[in-house]
Amino acid sequence: MISGVSGRSLVAMVISAAVLAGCVSGAKIVPPARKAPYGSDGARMSGHRSMQTSQIPSDPGFRRPPPGLNDRIFQLWRAFPGRTGIAVQRVDGEWAIAQRGGDLFPQQSVSKLWVALTALDAVDQGQLSLDHDVRIGPGDLTLFHQPIAARVRSEGSVTMTVRDLIESAITQSDNTANDSLLRSIGGPDAVRSFIARKDLGPIRFGPGERLLQSGTAGLTWRQAYSVDRSFQRARAALPEARRKAAMDAYLANPVDGATPSAIASALTRLARGSLLSPESTSYLLDVMSRTRSGPKRLKAGLPQGWKFLHKTGTGQNFRGMTAGYNDIGIATAPDGTRYAIVVMLRDTTATVPARMALMQAVSGAVAEFHGR
């Protein structure tokens, strides 16, 4: 958390970081949106925590964003180099604001949320149990961050419940846990079916970690890449032109792309309780509150007394650029008001500290303007 730093100081920090990192993106700058659509389930839908109509007249922030918040978000977005998407939606309200809210951005590990949702929907339908056992062997290992891999290699195989896989995939962003969970619910098509059936909008789901990451790098997946740093060595051996072509193709049309506004709407619907049963909703929100990754992203911009549950996503690096640097989540003010906040970076020349400063500035702005 950034303590003792004003909202204007945060803006200045991000603008300064952007100037140091490089020129502002050449994308066309549009004026701040005066009105944006909200969740497709309707603004007044009851959910995980009910909304009392009698409270609405005394809460001017219910129907419209606090004065100044949209302008602040626009300033932050405009100053940051590279293609950036930001969306903020009041969960228990009627408004949403966004910059590049309708553009597709690579999700990377943000997409683990849709796997967990699909699994819990299957639990709600009686098709799966949280106590169902899933065996994970050497042939199921993936790449990059996979804490489970050490156990698999030492023990030969491990068995984990669906509950354990959800916990590891969300809180630790374990790629093998996620792909094992994905396999147990029917693969990518099951997740795509859930997204379509729930009408979540422009949210794509890719082929799973192994194929997504190898394709982004310009490689064809081999199971040997799951051992040690074999993948990184094979990637480094590729001609640079091949890597660049693969990365450019991915960024131009990400197979796991999603729009910030669609993600904010999905988070809003999750928080309202309109995607899963009350039990599964509470369970998943609790799991997301224990996410360990990205402690200096959106979470760090919120003042003391605020709560935040979230999922991060980070892609591969190429020439100082990261193919997807994201954080999405639900912030809860001390008075119980909730906001879905989404920040997604498609590509940027900014340093990692500058990226985190932008995210902190966005969540800090939501907190600063809350209640105005």
Automatic annotation (TrEMBL):
| Record bears the keyword Iron | no
Instruction: Give the start-end ranges of region Disordered.
Output: 35-66
A GO biological process held by the record? response to antibiotic
**Swiss-Prot/TrEMBL catalytic activity:** a beta-lactam + H2O = a substituted beta-amino acid
Name used for this protein in its record = beta-lactamase
Pfam families, per database record: Beta-lactamase2
Write down the EC number. Answer: 3.5.2.6
Q: Does the keyword Aminoacyl-tRNA synthetase apply?
A: no
